[in-house]
Automatic annotation (TrEMBL):
It comes from Taxus chinensis (Chinese yew). InterPro entries: Peptidase_aspartic_dom_sf (IPR021109). The lineage of its organism: Eukaryota, Viridiplantae, Streptophyta, Embryophyta, Tracheophyta. This is Aspartic peptidase DDI1-type domain-containing protein. It comes from the Eukaryota.
């Protein structure tokens, strides 16, 4: 009759109220935490790495790829040599570029952008501009700036 009896209680309550379970949980936790990693005693090293560490081999020096630039399309206007910064959090467009595009809905913004080398006058934000890069279309928000 007791074999078919099931009791559902929260785990924390079971740990507090059942001493054997409390000891078992503590023992398991201590075993897991106390386990140390065993590192191999010998490490095999490839011949090129040995030469590199000994100063006999030098890695090839690559040329600076320069600034990553691409061509994009906004509307039916192609813009070449657009600087790409994949680590940038904001997308900036200057007023001269904006004047050549069929975009007019500039919204005011409270965003403040401080540049290290020159003061910048912000004009606003244009949201959801469809930018084509090759065959891919992205919706991009631009902060419109006027450099001095």
């Amino acid at each position: 009759m007791l074999r078919k009896l099931n009791i559902e209680i929260p785990l924390l309550q079971a740990i507090k109220n059942i001493p054997k379970l409390n000891k078992l949980i503590k023992m398991l936790c201590l075993k897991i935490l106390g386990r140390k990693k065993q590192y191999p005693k010998t490490i095999k090293v490839d011949g090129k790495l040995v030469d590199l560490l000994a100063g006999k081999l030098f890695l090839p020096k690559y040329k600076n790829p320069g600034s990553p630039v691409i061509s994009v399309s906004i509307g039916n206007k192609d813009i070449h040599n657009v600087l790409v910064d994949l680590g940038a959090v904001i997308n900036v467009m200057i007023v001269n570029t904006l004047k050549t595009l069929p975009l007019t809905c500039i919204q005011p913004t409270n965003t403040i952008l401080k540049m290290a080398d020159q003061p910048i006058t912000k004009l606003g934000v244009i949201e959801d501009v469809a930018v084509m890069v090759e065959s891919w279309e992205y919706l991009v928000d631009f902060l419109i700036m006027q450099p001095k």
